[in-house]
Each structure stands twice: as C-alpha cells, then as structure tokens.
Amino acid sequence: MKKILNTLIVGVALITLAACGGTNETATSGTASKTGNQLEAIKEKGEIVVGTSADFAPFEFHAMIDGKDTVVGADIDMMNEIGKELGVNVKVTDMDFDAILAALEQGQVDVAVAGISATEERKQSFDFSENYFVPEQKILVKKDSVAELNSVDSLDGKKVGAQKGSIQETVVKDQLTDSQLVSLPKVPNLIVELQQGSIDALVLESAVADSYAAQNDDIVVADVELESSDDDAYAIVLPKGSTELQEVLNEQIKAMQENGQLDEFLQKNTDLANENASK
Ligand code: ARG
C-alpha cells in the first residue's frame, strides 16, 4: 500500500512538474513572438538600452569624462559603434552583475553587454551573439603574498573572492575545491577586500585582472594556472528569439574584429582605466 502511495505521490509530482514546464514554454514562445521584431522595435524607438555592470575595466567602468562621471569601456565603445550602424541612441543602464540577466528577461534592457560568458547554462534561457573576446581565468593576490600563493594547492583553506553571479564563483568551487568562496556583488569591493587582507585571493579574467593589477601597485596576477573553457568567451546576450537583431550584431562584431576596432577599443580603454586610476 505504502509503495502504491509513493508511486502516486511521485506521479502527481511529475505531472505538476510537466505542467510547470508547459507554462514556461508558453512564456518563452510569448517572449519570442514579442521580440521577433526586436530589431524593428529598437529602430522604431530610436534607442537601444544596454544593461551592464560598470565594475569591470577595461570592458566597462566609471571614469570622469569632462568632469562628469561616465560609464566607459571596450564594451561600451562596441555598442556605440553598433548603435551608429543601426542609427539609434545607446542608453547604458548600470547595475549589479547578478541583476543583469533578470533585467533582460523582464524587458528592462534590450541587450546585456558586460563581458558576459556565453555558457551552456545561460544559453538555455537566452540567445547570444558570436563571441567577441576569449578570456583566461586568473588569480589576483597581494604583492607581498605572491611568493607564497603560487599554486592551486597553496590556496587550500584560503579565502578566495569572486563576483556574485559570475562564472568565477564556479571556478572557485570546481578548481579551488579546498578554498573558501567569498562572493561580493562588485569587483572594486573585492579589490578592497584583497588589499585589506579579508580575502587572500580573487578570481578574475585576463584583461580585467591585468587592468586592476596595473591600477593598484599592491596587487599582482599570481603564478597559478587555472583551467579556462570554451564557455568562458564573451558575447552579447539577447532575449530568446531575437533572430534579426542577433544577425545584425553578428555582422557588426565580425566587421569590428576584422578591421581591428575591437582590439583598438580594448587598448584605448586599458589606457583610460590606468590614467583614471592614477588621477
Ligand atoms: N565573464 C564572467 C561571467 O560572465 C564575469 C563577467 C563580469 N562582468 C562584469 N561586468 N562585472 O560570469
């Protein structure tokens, strides 16, 4: 009897799950039909709203431009170029990294551009453009502990920081299995924690790790090899089903890769982040 009851309960649970799945699917296709014309919608309103997390130099960060606090970076330059091509304004909305994908899902932003890794998991819920940058996973430590923290094992029992909602949390959990993960919403806060010694190390991606090391004399990239994966590459995130917009973005990315503009943007913003830090 007990067995039959159990089977029944499992059965009901499965049906409920299936029902939920059904609802989800309707929601997704609803979005798809709404966003099928996302490109047209953007052109019509004359504006593309870009969700970002401006704590990630040289891709997006705050700088004083003509005395005004401005969100700048290689991602922003790339989007401005795309905006020009589409003939629309680019409006940048800055938020915590772990809020961006929800904002995109809720239609508060048209695209998310924040050095976002196009992971298989995220691809279940969102569409992505072609990749535009391939990073490596790096560790930042204080200069005075670089000799001691020089291998994965040397980080056993240490506190290792990662940005909340980023794939670096997974890097810590999967590759630095005996360390203690400390997640914070903003990269500059993690840098301060590292400087103050409340964390021992911090996982960031190349270009970004290099930029923060260049901006802070007391921080360096550690001599620790981490694994990177194909999933780590950066791409622009779109709502599911925005095929027309996706095609245009892919064309633009390809053109900017071929004519060297993406490299230029990265170089220019790496310099800008340094100048900005030394002011
Ligand atoms: N590439 C990592 C990820 O997608 C980190 C991105 C963090 N970006 C930022 N603007 N803070 O999870």
What does it look like?
With 279 residues, this protein is of the alpha/beta class. The protein has helices at residues 2-35, 38-45, 74-86, 100-105, 120-123, 167-175, 187-196, 208-215, 243-258, 261-278; strands spanning 47-52, 61-65, 68-72, 89-94, 111-112, 126-133, 137-142, 159-163, 180-184, 201-205, 219-221, 234-239. Strands 9-8-10-7-11 form a 5-stranded mixed beta sheet, with helices on both faces. A hairpin with a 2-residue loop joins strand 2 (61-65) and strand 3 (68-72). Helix 3 (74-86) packs across helix 9 (243-258) and helix 3 crosses helix 10 (261-278). It is globular and about 55 Å long. Mean pLDDT is 90; it is low at 1-5 and 7-35. Residues 53, 55-56, 60, 97, 114-117, 163, 166-167, 187, 205 line the site of arginine.
Radius of gyration: 21 Å
> Tell me, what's the shape?
globular
How much is the average pLDDT?
Answer: 90
The sequence of SSEs as H and E is HHEEEHEHEHEEEHEHEHEEHH
Small molecules in complex: arginine
Largest sheet: 5 strands, mixed
- What level of helicity do the residues show? 40-55%
Sequence stretches where pLDDT stays below 50 over 5 or more residues: 1-5, 7-35
Structural class: alpha/beta
- Please, how many helices? 10
Percentage of residues in strands: 15-25%
Question: In total, how many beta strands?
Answer: 12
Strand order of the largest sheet: 9-8-10-7-11
Distance N terminus to C terminus? 76 Å
